[in-house]
Write the structure tokens for this entry.
Amino acid sequence: MKPQAPAFHDESETLFLDAEEVEQSPEGDLWFLPGPMEEEPDYLPPGPRAEPRESEVLDDWRKAEAGHAARLARVAGRVGALDDRLKRGPEGWRHRLALIEAADLSWFVGDRIGPDRLALWISMRLSGVQEDSAALARVGWAVRRLTGGPGPETNLSAFLDRRDPENMVDEAEPFADRAGSWLDLMARAADLHPITRGCAGFHLWSLAGLGLQGDRMEAAVTAARIAVSEGKGTVFAPLALGGAGGLRAGGSPTDRLARWLDGMETACLTAMRHLDDIESWSERAEAEMTLLSGKTPRALRAVLTEWPLVSAPMGEALTGASRAAVQRNLHWMEARGLIREVTGQGRYRMWQTSK
């Protein structure tokens, strides 16, 4: 008997037979199919942490405020005393404190604009060849916003002088929408004390996408205005006078609010001491300058009260007097110890009040 040849199947026939067997097999016998999702252990690492919800963020700030109630009351009292002092004082005091605060904030954000450079830029738009005009413009904006005008919660875009370009080509969220998100967040925090709300607004600035340009000056000035939104005399709450430790980031809302309150209390005390000094100087200068005739002595005394540093060209521009009259009065005041020259130069000299 002739042996039967073994049967051979091509590859396509084998695959067809295997598929037919699979179709006829019960599902439980199909070992290569994955089991139900709920029966599979989760071996994947946890995904990225989701952003906290707005309600949770604000609840954390409410808890922080409750935990610092006594300290908040003390700082609010300091701010109230400063507000009353400025309400009863001359208009120049507000301008003087705003110049000092803006200069100190510029060091905090890295621009490092000194009071002398700031005074020349604000009064006469003068800058050196090596100076950063953009930095001077930023600190000049801060002075304007710290001395008056509508608050940030009225129209944030107008307050910041920032607008979306008319021909936006990128797909980034428009600034107006980001500003609206931040304002909505502040509206939800209306039950917080203005000081706490200012602190929360400063630290939530980047959460709303407003910190894309890395300009912390805007956030600080906005928070300083919000913190005294109920004030009558002061336009802003000092944050950087005597140091800007309260503006440091990091930590929980409780830690941030504690630093904020400590820094604001120090700044308020520094501002009050500064007002004490300038008030005492004004009384002494007025008593000693009664013998001088003309309008220039009185006008120059007002300029020295309003500006931390004054040069002869500044005095000429701000008083409307002649350069010779301004220089003559400055030299007279320096000879009697009312003012002192601080640059130590023969040219571009500047004076400040002397204790």
Notes: The radius of gyration is 33 Å.
